[in-house]
UniProtKB/TrEMBL annotation:
Swiss-Prot/TrEMBL catalytic activity: ATP + protein L-histidine = ADP + protein N-phospho-L-histidine
Protein name: histidine kinase
Top class in the EC scheme: transferase
Source species: Pelagicoccus enzymogenes
Residues forming coiled coils: none
Enzyme Commission code: 2.7.13.3
Amino acid sequence: MAKKESSLDRVLGRIESLDATNLTNLAQKLARERAYLETVFNTALEGILVVDEEGEVQYANESGQRMIGLSDSEVGTTLLWRLIPGLRDSLGLEEGEPLRDSISSRELELTYPEQRFVRIYFLPFKEPVGEDDKQFVVMLSDITNEKRTKDETIESEKIASILLLAAGVAHELGNPLNSLTIHLQLMERQLAKLESGPATGKLGNSLSVCRGEVERLDGIIKNFLEAIRPQEPDFQVLDLSLVLEEVLEVVGSELNDRGITVEVEVVSEAPIVRADRNQMKQVFFNLIKNAMEAMGPGGALKIVSRSDEEKIYLRFGDSGEGIRQSDLSRVFQPYHTTKKSGSGLGLMIVQRIIRGHGGQVGIDSQEGVGTVVTLELPKRNRKLVMLEA
């Protein structure tokens, strides 16, 4: 089938017959069209590159240059393989081997000029630009947010499955504990029928200890199940400073026994939010307990509340041993703990509750200095303020 002739082909076919004025007009028209296309390409969020079969970058729009750290002076002289390490190996190309005349797609992580994930498409030109030139369009799409959202979904599903398993185990432990309670009661009744004496007294004390330990285990399981079961927050208007006072009153004797001083400071307005009272108590209790265990006797805990137009910030700073850099990225993972008797669920539960309230949890730590945990929560009237604005 005969090739369809374009209007540009017809003009170029008569270029030898054009006079100087028409040649000038044609050159100006081509320059305007080039500038127009440059503007179109530079407004695209995706990176658009043109490379030859050796991988040398012949053209790059502004988004493409920004994604791979390519300067104007490097266009036409730099190989794509140098800018995106690992891409050539991913395509299965040996050094010096030309690009294959096929469509390819890859997802890679870039570390320069900033860390991001990109999806890369190679599309060969249907027709060569020159007689022997073979070129490819390379499309770069930033999928960093998509990747993070996917990773967060996987993490949430993994946590949910672990919590479901843990809840099942905790529930099953409750059955033998109930059986132990019943049999201990029967043993106490039988003991009461025996004549009193030194032997029955010791046996009674042992039974009392056993009952106390069974009740303690039962309480631990109940608290564990209440903490990990996903529950919709019962939102109500709360002054978090008052909720914090209640928690500090409960743990006050333990803080005093350890010689830990606590300072609470409200920098600006009262921290009033819409939140679930019991869940926020759980958050504060977990953070204070972590701080106590990190500091040991004689430490200092400072809790600071501040706010801006939209958010409330609560900072829990301790003078403990800090968190190792290698552990900092894993503190929210279930069952990750550096303590001998820790469950590894405390901070994970804190994060789940705060996220359920539309907030975020941040951690800053320095070994040998201490740790600061920042709770970020939306203010009670944030939506009203946004609507008024």
